[in-house]
Amino acid sequence: MRKLLVSILGIVMIFSVSSIYAAGTKGGIRGTVTDSSSGATISGATITLVEASTSDTTDSSGFYMLTLIDAGDYTLKVEASGYTTSEQTVTIVAKSRILVDVALTSASSGDTTSPAPGDSGAISTGNVTETSVELSWAVASDDTSAFLDYKVVYLASDDIDTVTDAEENGTTVTDWSTDLTNATASGLSVSTTYYFNVLVRDDAGNFAAYTSTSATTLTSAVSLTYPIVDTNQDTSYDDSGNVLTNLSSGDAFYGQDNNYTTNTPSYADNGDGTVTDLNSGLMWQQDPVSKQT
Predict the structure, then answer these.
(1) CATH second-level architecture of 2-107?
(2) For residues 79 and 200, what is the distance between their CA atoms, to the nearest angstrom?
(3) What is the pLDDT of residues 224-253, one digit of tens each?
(4) Phi, psi at residue 214, to the nearest 5°?
(5) I need a labelling partner for 253 at 20 to 30 A (CA). Which of 10, 79, 128, 283 fits?
(6) Helices (H), the chain
């Protein structure tokens, strides 16, 4: 028993020493992100150690911290909306948490050029239903910003051509999102023409509008208040009585009864001379009178 306890203790000590050794190879980094002009702290900035694929976001006081990083050299990347992205090389030291403060430069200090909408500002519509329209567009380009934000709006009248009109009059489909190239406008009214536009914004706060486009939602199919029972017809014919196979929508003779499947016929014998259709609830008398000729 004593030998067993000694063996277990030895194993525990080996793992403990290994853990201490592993922890001894790791370090961390901390600091504060500020505006280079005003000195104000920047909250919501993203700090990334690129090679370690780990990141943090600054809190309300601009503070960030990354821990348990293997010792070595890394690229420290700092991004914040409205600021030029910063990159620098830092060295993580084992058993230490180095201090690296970062001051970001406002992107608006020298950039006054608006982004250029992709594909000359064209917006494509597709998969139009009674209540929704899918939209897509080409990514915009910019002379300084690596990342662009997009906003999608719609209106039931053609009054969202410019950035100002779109912001003031449009209903938001998707609010400002980075590198967006498609969106779906839903909750629309049946058989109604809508106008759509996409706005793009760079890091410096410069805006541009795509070219607005329109689409009309489909007319709603009539909603039946009673179930249709299938006939179990499974064959299509041409006008000469020849059997047709593998018909698709748009083909000649498509649209015959066997091209549509509804409720499978189902009936119940009530045992009293009547039969009930289990789909519609209708009831028939089995044999009301003698056959007549």
Answers:
(1) Sandwich (2.60)
(2) 19
(3) 566 778 888 888 888 888 988 887 777 888
(4) -135, 160
(5) 128
(6) 2-23, 163-169
